[in-house]
Amino acid sequence: MAEPVAEFDKVWLKLESAPDQTSSGLLLKMEEEVKQNIGVVVSVGPGDQLDDGSYESHSIEEGSKVIFNEHSGREISLGGVDYVVCKVKDVVATFSEVE
Question: In the 3-class helix/strand/coil scheme, how is 28-49 assigned residue by residue?
Answer without folding.
Answer: CCCCCCCEEEEEEEEEECCCCE
